[in-house]
Design brief:
mainly alpha; 2 strands; 25 helices; disordered N terminus; two-stranded antiparallel ribbon
Length: about 550
């Protein structure tokens, strides 16, 4: 029996127990696939059932994780030893276990790659289509429409190939699904999704031509695909795709090339992330970037706690070792699928990871889960990787069980430390002085622990803001002054608050000096790469109105 993508049915299928584990793991991921997803590294813990289900799934199929996958997790975990905000790193370790669970699920479902990608695309796709039906539009990074488009990209590569390879009703069904997926991508007007979509359609046409499709058939198929999208758009109220292209794409493409536009703000974020890597080559601490990157800034930039590039964020937060492990893992998954009839999986892998190179979707749970799911689908069955076992030394192969056991112990220990303490102060300590954990302590009992946390991890802007908010009078002035020295280019509001506090204390001369220092720090117009800087602060304060005016 021949399965889709040219795979022949082996002597035995995966056990029902394995499939049941995948189903249970998938059920626990539902909080991550909700209509309004939450960012990974902000204020919420990883759902405990999801961590437990991931640990069980990975433990039951630990051989499905390649050596470099374990190294990726451990290289991130070891950064807790020098993390500038260890609470976020402990949280990141738990998410890493979940992502390895997605990888294992992908390897167990490698025979039916379209199934999991269809399910995940549908979770946000229906919400995006519902918004269109209600006449709503959200053309923002991290919005439901952007996330739906990102999840539709890998599924599209599957159905474009199935459209050609299947017969009769299956071909028609694949064509209809491909049209709907392209429509979901079109109504988002997300350039981060449109770019990999164009790449997928072009490369898929080339590969299908190699499988026997002539260019006339492929051209007709593309016209039918675009025609289907146009037909839906003509029937739907307000013509969502046309509106997205007219009001969003052309307008923002024009603005993107202007100084301070979308392109330059992205480049500012990437420049700061790379600068953070040059000052901390072993990483700021996995997952800690958004809380501490401002302490590494040497010039003011457009504020965003997310780099909008998963690879650069990995490089800055996890260091070059974790970055290298991630790149090698992706390369393994790509080459195992690209050179076979399973090349649509390779395109799905490229599509989702390319999307995360330009958008905040790399910090969204649902997108990251699908990204690592495609890694597992790309790696395929264990046998496909074991064929290449002779290419690695026996010593390296023997190291895999040790690394797997060590990774499991680390994840279990971190999860127990995170959830075990019931006392709220002990919980904050065991959670690595995580700012949201400290913020949950009543203000009357918070001060001693908060002072201890700030003294140990002064680069955490979350802790600094809590520390400042809990003070008043001269003590508040002292803490604001400390913050401006530790984070001189990260947040202009510290300078503005300090000047205001000094005036309230009758220190007009000191306030004038503080404002002059603010102007000298945030009045810079160009970055080291010559980018036009976009002054701003974490509080949204306009520096031009409050600080930079003469």
């Amino acid at each position: 029996m021949t399965l889709p993508f040219g795979i022949r049915r082996p002597a035995s299928w995966h056990t029902w127990g394995s499939l049941l584990l995948v189903a249970l793991w998938g059920w626990t991921t539902l909080p991550c696939l909700q209509v309004n997803p939450t960012f990974i590294f902000v204020h919420q813990s990883v759902p405990l059932p999801l961590v437990v289900a991931s640990v069980v799934l990975v433990a039951a199929h630990w051989r499905s994780v390649p050596l470099v996958g374990w190294l990726w997790l451990l290289f991130g975990a070891v950064t807790a030893l020098w993390s500038l905000s260890p609470g976020f790193t402990l949280l990141s370790i738990q998410w890493d276990a979940v992502l390895l669970g997605a990888l294992v699920a992908g390897r167990l479902l490698w025979k039916l790659p379209a199934l999991p990608l269809s399910i995940t695309a549908a979770t946000s796709g229906w919400a995006s289509l519902s918004l269109v039906a209600l006449g709503s539009r959200f053309y923002l990074s991290g919005s439901v429409m952007y996330i739906a488009a990102a999840l539709a990209v890998p599924a599209l590569s599957m159905y474009v190939a199935l459209w050609w390879r299947q017969r009769r009703l299956l071909r028609l069904g694949s064509a209809v699904v491909a049209v709907v997926l392209l429509y979901v991508i079109g109504i988002s007007a997300s350039r981060a999704a449109l770019l990999p979509t164009l790449l997928i359609l072009g490369v898929a046409a080339w590969r299908l031509h190699g499988e026997g499709a002539n260019w006339k058939q492929l051209s007709l198929g593309l016209l039918l695909l675009l025609g289907g999208v146009a037909l839906i758009d003509a029937l739907v109220f307000d013509h969502a795709v046309l509106q997205a292209i007219g009001l969003k794409t052309f307008d923002t493409l024009h603005k993107a090339t202007q100084e301070g536009g979308n392109l330059e703000t992205r480049l500012q974020m990437w420049e700061v992330a790379f600068h953070a890597f040059t000052t901390h080559p072993f990483g700021l601490g996995s997952g800690a970037y958004g809380d501490v990157f401002q302490s590494t800034q040497a010039w003011p930039v457009y504020y965003s706690r997310f780099v909008h590039n998963t690879f650069l964020e990995t490089l800055a937060s996890g260091g070059f070792l974790r970055f290298g492990a991630l790149c090698w893992l992706l390369w393994q998954a790509f080459q195992h699928s690209w050179r076979s009839a399973r090349w649509p999986v390779a395109l799905a892998l490229v599509g989702i990871w390319l999307n995360m190179c330009f958008d905040v979707t790399g910090n969204i749970p649902s997108t990251l889960l699908v990204a690592f799911l495609t890694v597992g689908l790309g790696l395929g069955a264990n046998e496909t990787v074991e064929i290449r076992a002779t290419e690695t030394s026996a010593q390296i192969r023997r190291a895999t069980p040790t690394l797997a056991a060590l990774s499991g112990l680390v994840v279990i220990a971190v999860t127990l430390a995170w959830w075990w303490p019931h006392d709220i102060q002990q919980q904050a300590i065991w959670r690595g002085m995580w700012p949201p954990a400290i913020a949950s302590i009543p203000s009357s009992d918070r001060e001693p622990l908060l002072t201890r946390a700030v003294s140990r991890f002064p680069d955490s802007i979350g802790l600094q803001k809590l520390w400042i908010a809990s003070a008043s009078g001269s003590q508040r002035e002292q803490r604001l002054n400390t913050a401006t020295q530790i984070i001189p280019y990260g947040d202009a509001s510290f300078f503005l608050q300090l000047a205001q506090q000094q005036r309230q204390l009758g220190q007009s001369a000191a306030a004038a000096q503080t404002e002059a220092l603010c102007r000298s720090h945030f009045g810079r117009l160009r970055s080291p790469l010559g980018l036009a800087l976009t002054p701003g602060s974490i509080s949204g304060t306009s520096l031009h109105d409050l600080c930079l005016k003469p």
